[in-house]
Amino acid sequence: MNGTILRAEQLQAFYVLDMFGTRRVVKAVNGVNLEIRENEVYGIAGESGCGKTTLLKALYGAMDPPLRLIGGRVFYRVNGQDVDIFSLRPNELKQLRWEYISYVPQGSMSVLNPVIKIKETYRDFLESHVRGKTRDEIFEMAKEHIAALGLPPTVLEAYPHQLSGGMRQRVTIALAALLKPRIMIADEPTTALDVVVQRGVIQLLKGIQESLGNTIILVTHDMGVQANVADRIGIMYAGRIVEEASVEEIFGNPLHPYTWYLINSLPRFGDKGMRESVPGSPPSLITPPSGCPFHPRCPHTRPICREQMPSFFEPVAHHKVACWLMGEG
Amino acid sequence: MEKLLEVEHLTKVFTLGSLLSRIRIRAVDDVSFYIRPAEIFTLAGESGCGKTTIARIILGFEEPTAGAVIYGGKRGAKNERVWFTEGVQAIFQDPFGTFNPLRTVEQYFFETVRNYRLARTREEAIRLIDEKLRAVGLSYEEFAGKYPSEFSGGQLQRISIARALLTDPKLLIADEPVSMVDASLRMSVVNLFKKLKEEMGVSVLYITHDLATAYYVGDRIAIMFRGNIVEMGPVEKVLMEPLHPYTRLLRESIPEADPSKRWSNKIALTETEYQEYLRTGCKFAGRCPDVMEICKSAMPGYVEVDGVLVRCYKYTSL
């Protein structure tokens, strides 16, 4: 097994909003423990509003108000040392960004400056991270990088709006891979793309991971995409990871009722049998349900589910779950 | 055979660019199909294939360059707005954009009741609204006085459908109704179409890029590519034994929720959308693995193979 590269302990990150004197707290990440390994694709899945994006922001150390770190720690393994990212000074964190860990946010338009050509974005980027290169050398580096990833060289001369959504997304991913980071975080990289284009984007992401041998944290609600690329999957519900296992285990032997619904609600070719959605509606993160947050929607609720949050334990080797049905916890 | 709605040789040309560099794009190019009573007909394809333009033409938001829409045996029936919209109602993609966030959702229902004179008293209106909400698994009590932000995407989309049902329509035009709804709640909307068809005999023109739900819920399907229908027939045939190379590519590119079925081969993405639109021959010739010389010069006509209409030279010699 590969070593741990990123570790989160009891991570809590809330949005604290003060509106006309009333304080509202959105418990977006509420006690997450994670151990992400070197050279793996770790998928995070869950419904919209379950805290996936906030978890990524916290793992990236991007705590901008109203998002606040309430508790817990995040460690990166840099050159054999565990580094607590919330104890770093802003300029130290900035140094790690892009070279050690990079982030592909949702909606590629926000990364690329709309009024300059793609090559200018690449130049800006390389000039601030690579010292002692001339403009021409930098341009050559960008061209080589683009060609190595199989994108047409003409994209460098284009403005972002001239590219299709899929091409823009691939340019953004290429940019995030430029400095060969050890960890890449991708937030819904294929949402709103057509299936054929989506396949191209996934192909690129997977290709980068294989050639660099690095770690990708992939957030997407699309279980089909998860099945196709992830090595391990964490299922997130109401700000917590409720199940974690290898991709084969998650799809072959889901233990949490929520995971079971996520997988079995998907229609499959060659099977017209009735499919059901997850019952009920996603929970509020301002007033989350008591006990296990899934209990109002769960068909197997027991009295204890309403009162106490089950602990995250390992009933099967390398398969963790937080559910009272699986035993004492 | 009875046809509820028929689309005949529909064509829509858009002009892009300035006065000097003008590009004419045939967004919809000679498209014909029909929908039977109590049938779910799927129009599927990627973004920019013209499927939404067809919906907009049917609903009368857009004038076709050529061709006609026939509803209830009448050509250009959409000119008789009230009669047409009573029978044909629409559901749109973005459930959060459909409703004004500052108005309660019930206001939309009362407005529809008023516009079509569906009830004489408020009590009668509430009874009608409650009946339609129950058909989609909600009720008037849990919905009265609430704002759109108090519902999930799936609930709002079901509320949209309940509103469309007020006039007892014969046909629903649903343009990407589940693409913005969470995957975990999608089936609650899709199952509803099935139920409406089976219990109330409502037909649905289901416009989507999601072939998996199309297979699950649909009866017949038409696959569109760059303004043309390239393959049309029963879902079982078209999606399980695709004939057109484009349908095959689409079908293979859907990630299946099964880690043992990962993609092994790589695909090429080359031309941009409008370059493909401007091709003279088959629009797919630039990416087709089975391309022949003839494909680059002229668009193939339709051939019927085993109950499926397909537009590809591979089958013309049959």
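The CA atoms of residues 89 and 164 of chain B lie 6 Å apart.
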